[in-house]
Structure formats: structure tokens, C-alpha cells
């Protein structure tokens, strides 16, 4: 998938900041609103509690592996949307 989460980071920030918004376009949802709705559906309470349980059970080293898994997960999440 070409590490789109790294290559497209600047473009993602520009889209989120509204650089490509056009007030004359039909529709009521901005790029930022669409991003936050997708993130809220993806993250959820289970992922937040899962981090706390992993650090409690495995120690702070579990955070490193969660970051590695998150980087891979970002790419696959981008590809499925």
C-alpha cells in the first residue's frame, strides 16, 4: 500500500484544515466533520480501555508494539475506506 499514512500526511492536514473546501458545493458536511465522524466510529471506547489494560498487564513496553500495530492499521483503514 506504499505507506500512504506517511506519504499523504501533508495532504491530509491540508484537507482537514479546509484548504479544499468550496462553500458553493452542495452538501452540509465539511471535510473536518467527515473525518471526526469516521474517527469516532473507528476508535471507540474499547480501544481506549484496551490501551490501559495492555499497559497495566504488560508494562510500558506494550506502548511500542501498539504504535507499530497502529501504523500498519492506519494504512489498512485507509485502503478499506
TL;DR?
The chain has 81 residues and is an all-alpha fold. The protein has 4 helices and no strands.
Task: Walk me through what this model shows.
The two termini are 13 Å apart. The chain is mainly alpha-helical and 81 residues long. It is built from four helices and no strands. The protein has one domain. The protein has helices at residues 4-7, 9-17, 31-58, 61-80. Helix 3 (31-58) packs antiparallel against helix 4.
Q: How many domains make up the coordinates?
A: 1
* End-to-end CA span: 13 Å
Low-confidence stretches: none
Radius of gyration from the CA trace? 16 Å
> What is the helix content?
over 70%
Strand segment count: 0
Measured by DSSP, the beta-strand proportion falls in under 5%
| Mean pLDDT metric | 81
User: Which sequence of SSEs, written as H and E, runs from N to C?
Assistant: HHHH
Q: What's the tally of helices? A: 4
Structural class designation: mainly alpha
Profile the largest sheet.
none
Shape: elongated
Amino acid at each position: 500500500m506504499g505507506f500512504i499514512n506517511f506519504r499523504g500526511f501533508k495532504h491530509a492536514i491540508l484537507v482537514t484544515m479546509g484548504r479544499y473546501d468550496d462553500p458553493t458545493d452542495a452538501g452540509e458536511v465539511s471535510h473536518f466533520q467527515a473525518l471526526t465522524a469516521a474517527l469516532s466510529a473507528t476508535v471507540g471506547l474499547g480501544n481506549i480501555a484496551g490501551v490501559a489494560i495492555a499497559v497495566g498487564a504488560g508494562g510500558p513496553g506494550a506502548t511500542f508494539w501498539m504504535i507499530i500495530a497502529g501504523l500498519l492499521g492506519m494504512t489498512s483503514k485507509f485502503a478499506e475506506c
